[in-house]
Amino acid sequence: MSAPGISLEVRGLRKSWGPINVLKGVDFDIHAGGFLTLLGPSGCGKSTALKLISGLESVTAGQILLNGQDVTSKAASDRNIGMVFQNYALFPHMSVAENITYGLKVRKVAKSTQQASLKRVAELMALSPLLDRKPAQLSGGQQQRVALARVLVSERPIVLMDEPLSNLDAKLRVEIRSEIRALNKQLGITVLYVTHDQSEALSMSDTVVLMNKGQVAQIGAPKDLYDRPANTFAASFIGTPPMNLLAAKDVVLPDWVASRVTGEQADLLIGVRPEKMHILGDNDDFSATCTIASVEYEGSVFLVHLRTHSGAAFILAHHGPDAPIPGDEIVVGWKNEEAHLFSSGTGLRISSNSK
Ligand SMILES: Nc1ncnc2c1ncn2[C@@H]1O[C@H](COP(=O)(O)OP(=O)(O)OP(=O)(O)O)[C@@H](O)[C@H]1O
């Protein structure tokens, strides 16, 4: 059970099916015992990357290294990788204990070792009272924990997980993700995780690889992606609701930005997170005059849907106490340190004096 993790390096990974280029050259590394998540919208190639790494599909080009060894042309069975999928197939006629130890039994691991591993993982995953039950007698979350326990006792030094929580309700997802994270840290197993759910990615990972259309849009720690999106794709994917992106013409700019808005620089986009702006105070550097289109009450916050005079839509997260009134004209503002500048032409972040 004390499998020390191994490192993974992915170099120039490409995959085409006929004329369709699904992965267009993807690079990333996970250090031994690290937790890296591939995050991105449906169809961006996350599951394909996982299949190539596990050996279930062959690469079109690129290299996969485990602990520095090139395994690109090795069979899946020779890669010593554990996998957990969204559809975790448990054997219905076997008990929880038999399901968990099945792989050890097939590998003819000594019975006493099997029982010791089972005891430890059952305690870790809070499954000890359920070991004699059949899968049909478990809730969805308990079944998912059995699937995780099964891969954990298999002592693989690296585990790939493809949306393993997507069949569960919101509360269980939150509970199990902290268990997965704890297991990664306690056991030192390297984890490569796939999800389209940003809160899962941001809360669990050491590193997030944000993917868009078969390419890497940004790699970084969760906080880097939130604090310094590298491009408009990252800005408008990360955050709930995501970052507002306003044309320079819709914003009253401070001098240091206004001086850039000349000639070709007129393609500037001003990014600001809904929770980082407010109804205008005295010390704001940027401001925008707008009309309140509608207000959504979210419990801790009002999401105020705004329109600029030119008709651009954006959102302010307002912390009350009073609800803003639809139809009112207001001025919203934010400070230099909350402003993100992007080129609308390339979509790339523009470094500035302020950020
Ligand atoms: N065997 C295949 N043959 C042809 N095209 C495929 C095959 N498998 C996947 N694709 C295509 O590759 C693209 C990426 O699929 P993939 O499953 O990797 O995306 P994903 O990011 O994991 O999406 P999701 O979050 O919806 O699972 C999709 O357009 C898909 O239709």
UniProtKB/TrEMBL annotation:
Superkingdom of origin: Bacteria
Signal peptide: none
InterPro entries xrefs: AAA+_ATPase (IPR003593), ABC_transporter-like_ATP-bd (IPR003439), ABC_transporter-like_CS (IPR017871), ABC_transpr_MalK/UgpC-like (IPR047641), Mo/tungstate-bd_C_term_dom (IPR008995), NA-bd_OB-fold (IPR012340), P-loop_NTPase (IPR027417), Transp-assoc_OB_typ2 (IPR013611)
Span of domain ABC transporter: 8-238
Family matches, as PROSITE patterns: ABC_TRANSPORTER_1, ABC_TRANSPORTER_2
Coiled-coil stretches: none
One Gene Ontology MF term: ATP binding
Keyword vocabulary terms for this entry: ATP-binding, Cell membrane, Membrane, Nucleotide-binding, Translocase, Transport
Family to which the UniProt record says this protein belongs: Belongs to the ABC transporter superfamily.
PANTHER family: MALTODEXTRIN IMPORT ATP-BINDING PROTEIN MSMX, TREHALOSE IMPORT ATP-BINDING PROTEIN SUGC
Protein name: ABC transporter ATP-binding protein
Organism (species): Parasedimentitalea denitrificans
